[in-house]
Amino acid sequence: MTGRRALGRQFGWLWAAFVVSSYGTGLRFGAFPMIAVLVLHSGPTQVAALAAAGRAVGALVAVPLGPWVEFRRKRPVMVAMDLIRCAALLSVPAAFALGRLSFAQLLVVSVAVATADIAFRAASGAYLKGLVPPEDLLVANGRFESTTWTATVVGPPLGGAAMGMFGPMTTVVADAVSYLLSALGLRAIGGTEPRPARAGAARLRAGELLEGWRYVLAHATLRPLFFNAIVVNGLIMATEPLLAVLLLGPLGFAPWQYGLAFAAPCVGGLIGSRLAPRLVARFGQHKVMFTAGALRACWPVGLAFVRPGVPGLVLIMVVQFGLVTCCGLFNPVLATYRLDHTPSDRVVRTLTAWSVSSSAAIAAMTAVWGLLAALTGPRTAIAVAGVLLLATPLLLPRREHAPLDTREQAASLT
Questions:
Q1: How far apart are CA 303 and CA 243, in angstroms?
Q2: What are the average pLDDT values for consecutive 10-residue runs of the chain, which has 414 residues?
Q3: How far apart are the first and last CA of the chain?
Q4: Which residue, 39, 74, 220, 291, could crosslink 123 as a Cys pair with Cβ 3.0–4.6 Å?
Q5: Where are the beta strands (DSSP E) in 311-367?
Q6: CA distance 177 to 187
């Protein structure tokens, strides 16, 4: 179970598609807020709404997509989601060139991209489970995780430089092209994908919209992991705008220092994701998941003590490095565990429910913490989030409760 394990040509194309789209997204980081401010002259409230609305409305729109995708071939769905994201993003520079770009269009594009993101991730998870043997899932998820963090390190600085020299529309076009290249990479995988069999009624029933949540909430181990992930991700993401206000405002950090403080520590995510297969092979999946999940909650409270100057910059980088390293270790193990313990005919609905819940929680907590910061100040709000995070390890399962799905075990024996 090493990172050098060969997973085959088809996985190579899948990974290549993920790499190019991840770097495109990294390049576009911050482009929409910059367009809103510099091109449309939007205020802070509109910029905050742009960040929250995409997640919240996109999550709502994505709810019926889970059952719809579940019983369709996954690779064509992934290609379609790439093309939707490409077309939506290209509409922004096209409207700008015609002098017709509006804030409403940015909102619509944000929702479309967020919805397609959720559908794509759910379909890709199900496709990966059918493409890669169970013993290689952790290696595959580790490679995806390491790509995400590498793109986070490299993409935003390069994107910032490109936006500075050529304007934010440049990175929007680059991200759109990356989705087009991703779609071509997925097409190059080749092979045949069987159409999933659908039991029962041919039409989508209302009850199927909740099937993913029902499965997760009934599972003894996935249930606490689900709530832990939602709360942790929500609290971490809710403090990001507050940190920007605190660091770039009262503490007087330069924009390049702010970018460095959060980009450089992402190397820890690469380290954690590369260590995951080795640590799981030695200590076991559950122990690694519990330990990494508990440790990642210990770091963010340190951000409440940041001060101006070099000492403050060093403190942020140390805290972020510890947090990102633990996340880089935890995330691929969780992703693998979730696939291992979800039946193939429920993977898409389960992953959709997970993503929808996470996006909605992040949007809601971002709004709540924005209000809290307005009442108490950003440092106090960041401290409150850090203290609450210290309690989140209580949501982690302390022991392995549930075996692999019994239906899949039975199927493997026949």
A1: 8
A2: 67 93 87 82 72 78 81 91 96 94 92 90 91 90 89 81 83 94 93 69 62 91 94 90 80 77 86 92 92 94 91 92 94 93 88 88 85 87 94 86 46 35
A3: 27
A4: 74
A5: none
A6: 15
Q: CB neighbours (10 Å) of residue 249?
A: 10
CB 13 within 8 A of CB 189: yes
Give the position of tokens 């633990």: 326
- Lookup result for tokens 């399962």: 397
| Residue 68 to residue 273: CA distance in whole angstroms | 32
pLDDT for 272 equals: 92
Find the helix packing angle between 347-376 and 103-131, rounded to 10°.
140
**Cα–Cα dist 92/85, whole Å:** 12
List Cα–Cα distances, 180 to 14, 67, 200, in angstroms.
14, 26, 36
The answer to pTM > 0.90 is no
- Hey, what amino acid is at 79? V
Contact by Cβ (8 Å): 341, 222: yes
* Structure-token match 């092209």, residue found: 177
Instruction: Quote the longest CA-to-CA distance of the chain.
Output: 66
User: Helices 137-166 & 9-28, crossing angle to 10 degrees?
Assistant: 30
Specify whether the backbone of 99 is left (phi greater than 0), alpha (psi in -120 to 50) or beta.
left
Between CA 206 and CA 214 the distance in angstroms is 13
Choose among 351, 63, 353, 64: nearest CA to 203. 64
How far lies 214's CA from each of 61, 207, 343, 403, in Å? 19, 10, 13, 18
> Closest by alpha carbon to 170, among 82, 97, 259, 103?
97
Residue with tokens 């009850």: 207
* Gap between the Cα atoms of 159 and 163, Å rounded: 6
| CB neighbourhood size of 174 (10 A) | 21
How far apart CA 321 and CA 326 sit, in angstroms, is 9
- Give the amino acid at 143: R
Place of tokens 């549930």: 402
Kindly compute the dihedral angle of the four CA atoms of residues 46, 383, 327, 244, in this order, to the nearest 10 degrees. 40
pLDDT at residue number 206 = 56
Structure tokens at 356: 């929808």
Within 10 angstroms of residue 161's Cβ, the number of other Cβ atoms is 12
State which amino acid sits at residue 180: L
